[in-house]
Design a protein that fits this description.
432 residues; alpha/beta; Aspartate Aminotransferase, domain 1; Aspartate Aminotransferase, domain 2; 2 domains; 7-stranded mixed β-sheet; 4-stranded mixed β-sheet; 14 helices; binds pyridoxal-5'-phosphate
Length: 432
């Protein structure tokens, strides 16, 4: 059943006159899936409403932050009461240390934390800090991992260790990515080879400990341990980019789930409770290189913003006091993901899925997805058809095969049941 779309189409046209593609972040434009992006006017719990009055069960959750659901009353109240006292001062406020205390309680290796305004700033700063600490130039990232849009991190490909970073975006000079080594996720031989080739020159390895940005890809057993071992052996800083996984796959992130300690952790998304926040943290010995204590410069006019700190504090405090939420959303996500996969199987639609707790992806490929190469074998046309049909049936999934979906504490059994029913309909439409 096609939805009413007039208002969203009108708003999209208007926005396109002024904003590139009508969007302030590219994936919102639905280029990967086709169709018209709904303009959202309201969110409550697990549901969204668009400008035409259509209602959706939302599995984007603002790309991760809304683990308590939209407009959670305690978060809204905290933002409103902080707002009454003024929205920004460019001076220290007490709530910054409250949020720092919560972050430090979640990550045992973090003794000091610095707040910024986005995940991009967090990873960019952590890498600068790793370089400052090691006094080395090279960094290693993995294909299919996304760490924000800083120049040196916009490196897609580069097959083989010998290939130096090739920029994945126009406007990034090769010189800016020449110290970025992009290796295949899960390939320990390539990583060992990089360490041999660039001996004592690799400042850091940055990794999504559960990848969310090629779709959800969990680490194989032993992989993160091996990365930890090789970085330790080489005096290289290991950065876990937990912008997505922090407070999502467990209160203490992937490092709690897999019991591995990185040297630096980057955070974002959930720690802002739906407002713009990022953070990077680690041991005092490393963090004390950050200005004003040390020579590594990093600053921000709106960093530690009081509204964002208030929203983050109330969100993290609620999660810390209700850790049963993680079991609840794990179980519910399990039912949802298996239910949709069973419907696909029944309809003869080739599909595999990955899930860690409440983050998951249905890949339209029969083979296991373990890295960018296997993820990219997905039938993105089939995904697009599935996505559009789900949207028409009131289910809002991430508009790309290569983005993880999220379930929140506000999603109900009824939401799950309706989502599986919508998937059955979508698969019934699928060409055989
Ligand atoms: C979202 C994300 C980022 C970037 O965060 P922004 O707030 O969008 O700048 C970085 N790393 C990971 C793993 C992410 O998921």
């Amino acid at each position: 059943m096609p939805r009413k779309l007039e208002q969203s189409r009108r708003l999209q046209k208007r926005a396109e006159q002024m904003i590139p593609g009508g969007v302030n972040s590219p994936v919102r434009a639905f280029r990967a899936v086709g169709g018209d992006p709904p303009f959202i006017v309201r969110g409550q719990g697990s549901h969204l409403w668009d400008a035409d009055g259509n209602q959706y069960i939302d599995y984007i959750g603002s790309w991760g932050p809304q683990i308590l659901g939209h407009a959670a009353p305690q978060v809204v109240d905290a933002i409103i009461s902080a707002t009454r006292n003024g929205t920004s001062f460019g001076a220290s406020t007490p709530t910054e240390a409250d949020l720092a205390e919560l972050v430090i309680s979640a990550f045992p290796h973090v003794q000091r934390v610095r707040f910024v305004s986005s995940g991009t700033e967090a990873t960019m700063s952590a890498i600068r800090l790793a370089r400052a600490y090691t006094q080395r130039k090279y960094i290693v990232k993995f294909e299919g991992c996304y760490h924000g849009h800083a120049d040196a991190l916009l490196v897609k490909a580069g097959s083989g260790v010998a290939t130096l970073g090739i920029p994945g975006s126009a406007g990034v000079p090769e010189e800016f990515t020449q110290y970025t080594l992009a290796l295949a996720y899960h390939n320990m031989d390539a990583l060992e080879e990089a360490f041999n080739k660039f001996k004592n020159q690799i400042a850091c390895v940055i990794v999504e400990p559960v990848v969310g940005n090629m779709g959800c890809v969990p680490p194989a057993p032993g992989y993160l341990e091996a990365v930890r071992a090789v970085t330790s052996r080489n005096g290289t800083i290991l950065i876990f980019d937990e912008v997505m996984t922090g407070f999502r796959v467990a209160f203490g992130g992937a490092q709690e789930l897999y019991a591995i300690r990185p040297d630096l952790t980057t955070m974002g998304k959930i720690i802002g409770g739906g407002l713009p926040v990022g953070a990077y943290g680690g041991p005092a010995e490393i963090m004390e290189l950050v200005a004003p204590l040390g020579p590594m410069y990093q600053a921000g006019t709106l960093s530690g913003n009081p509204l964002a700190m208030a929203a983050g504090c109330v969100t993290l405090r609620y999660l810390r006091e209700h850790k049963e939420i993680y079991d609840q959303i794990d179980k519910r996500s399990g039912e949802l993901v298996a239910g949709v996969a069973a419907a696909a199987k029944e309809a003869g639609v080739p599909m595999t899925y990955n899930r860690v707790g409440s983050m998951f992806t249905w890949f339209f490929t029969p083979a296991p997805v373990t890295d960018w190469t296997s993820a990219s074998k997905s039938d993105t046309e089939a995904f697009g058809r599935f996505f559009r049909s789900m949207l028409d049936n009131g289910v809002y999934l991430p508009p790309s095969q290569f983005e993880a979906a999220f379930l929140s504490a506000a999603h109900t059994e009824e939401d799950v049941r309706r989502t599986i029913a919508a998937a059955k309909q979508a698969f019934a439409l699928a060409p055989a």
